[in-house]
Write a structure and sequence with these properties.
about 270 residues, 11 helices, mainly alpha, Cytochrome Bc1 Complex, Chain D, domain 2
Length: about 270
């Protein structure tokens, strides 16, 4: 009976028995308590990146992108100059004349009514070929195109009562150069002979009438006209001083030297 009771407990060499005995040791418990106090409690998550580092990285990326756009030369293998301009060899666009510009605008916006020949449609749209409405005082044509015209008028013996739309700020809002071009074309095509309408003239007329909200009518469109601007006179060329041939030769030599220096771009030869 006593032997059976003795064998019912854990064996002294059993692992559970050893751990139980160790936990009963007061010194061991004190050491464990100290270790637990000194050890930081575990936390979930991660340490955030400082915000200034994120801004610094974004700034470097932006600067690098701008630098590559300006100085990469489209990553061409034969360009080694930091000042390489890939557009230097492209042809410069040719500026067309006011007459040619005006012809395009007229065909796109005016030829439907006034016809490509400028004769208009009898009783409906007045002619502009040979008409003093477009060839005499430029201010009349400027008023009509900037603000429009409606009501009855008489052109070259024919009577018309229609509505001319505005090409200025209250209408198609053409640029000053486009307005000068179409006026020049109308005043010089189909046998018409009148001076150019310069951009400066259009700017001055636009300053006077751009704020007008209503179209003109007859006879107000031809009333209170300002003096016709004098055409610009080119300044005469100054006489060349003595010894100008030598000066021109020196200038040509200097130009050739500058061209030679501009062609000497730093080139890195890869010899491997």
């Amino acid at each position: 009976m006593s032997e059976q009771k003795h064998n019912s407990g854990p064996h002294p060499d059993n692992k559970d028995s050893l751990e139980h005995a160790a936990m009963q040791d007061e010194q061991m418990q004190e050491v464990h308590a100290q270790l637990m106090r000194e050890k930081e409690e575990p936390e979930e998550g991660f340490s955030p990146v400082p915000i200034f580092l994120m801004f610094l990285f974004a700034t470097l990326c932006f600067w690098g992108g701008v630098y590559l756009v300006h100085y990469s030369a489209n990553f061409r293998w034969d360009a080694y100059s930091p000042y390489f301009d890939p557009n230097a060899d492209k042809p410069v666009p040719v500026e067309i004349t006011l007459f040619a510009r005006g012809e395009k605008i007229f065909r796109n916006n005016c030829a439907v009514c006034h016809q490509g020949t400028g004769v208009g449609v009898p009783g409906v749209y007045p002619p502009i070929a040979g008409s003093d409405w477009v060839t005499e005082h430029p201010q009349v044509l400027a008023r009509v195109l900037i603000n429009g015209l409606n009501g009855p008028i008489e052109v070259m013996g024919g009577k018309y009562n229609g509505n001319m739309p505005a090409f200025g700020p209250t209408g198609l809002n053409l640029s000053d150069k486009d307005l000068a071009g179409v006026m020049t074309y109308i005043r010089q095509e189909w046998g018409n002979s009148a001076p150019d309408m310069t951009v400066a003239m259009v700017e001055s007329y636009k300053a006077l009438y751009a704020s007008r909200s209503s179209p003109w009518n007859y006879p107000a469109v031809k009333a209170d006209l300002d003096p016709i601007p004098e055409p610009a006179v080119e300044a005469p060329a100054e006489a060349a001083p003595e010894g100008s041939e030598a000066t021109e030769a020196e200038a040509e030599a200097e130009t050739a030297a500058q061209g030679a220096r501009s062609d000497e771009l730093p080139v890195i030869a890869a010899a491997h």
